[in-house]
Design a protein that fits this description.
Elements (H helix, E strand, L loop, with lengths): L1 H21 L3 H23 L16 H19 L14 H21 L8 E3 L5 E3 H26 L5 H6 L2
Length: 176
């Protein structure tokens, strides 16, 4: 019995190694998967919040939900366009509506999708002019300004949904 279990474990391990060996870009593949996850979570989050709650603030000193969404979208668009050597900025009203957020999110997601879908591990080492931050590697720009920042804003914004009695997308998928 132990021999059978050891054989099964070895086959699974070797199969996993073979799959990773075939992917010549394991780091960029991981980043692409992380991007797809947070992109989908933020898109679903923005969609789940009713339009009338886009002005909701948990406390008076915080940004409202629409402003939080506009903030993360702006950062992603700026960082992904910088990786492409461009300067794309999005403009929002002082009180972004659900429709405004949805349209801008589609633009930013398309921009970032094009970056992550064409990314290679060699690209990640390239240095990019990141504006005020000076020169940064593509990896640092994508990992820090797009992925980590998006995950941070998602975490903050999940509280906005919870306070309105809405289950955040990540919790919803984990409860199935």
């Amino acid at each position: 019995m132990k021999r059978i279990l050891a054989t099964i474990a070895a086959v699974i391990f070797l199969g996993t190694c073979a799959c990773h060996a075939q992917d010549g870009n394991p780091v960029s593949a991981q980043l692409k998967g992380s991007w797809a996850n947070i992109r989908d979570l933020l898109t679903k989050m923005a969609d789940k919040m009713p339009d009338e709650n886009y002005r909701f603030k948990p406390t008076p000193e915080l940004q409202d939900f629409g402003q939080r969404m506009a903030h993360v979208i702006t950062f992603s668009m700026r960082a992904c366009s910088q990786v492409k050597g461009e300067q794309k900025n999005l403009s929002f009203s002082a009180t972004p509506t659900k429709a405004e957020v949805a349209a801008a999110m589609k633009q930013a997601n398309d921009e970032c999708d094009s970056v992550f879908n064409s990314l290679t591990d060699a690209d990640l080492q390239k240095m990019i002019n990141a504006g005020r931050g000076g020169q940064r590697s593509e990896f640092a720009l994508l990992e820090g300004l797009v992925l980590e920042h998006s995950q941070e804003v998602y975490g903050y914004s999940a509280v906005y949904l919870r306070l309105k009695g809405i289950v955040p997308p990540s919790s919803e998928r984990n409860e199935r």
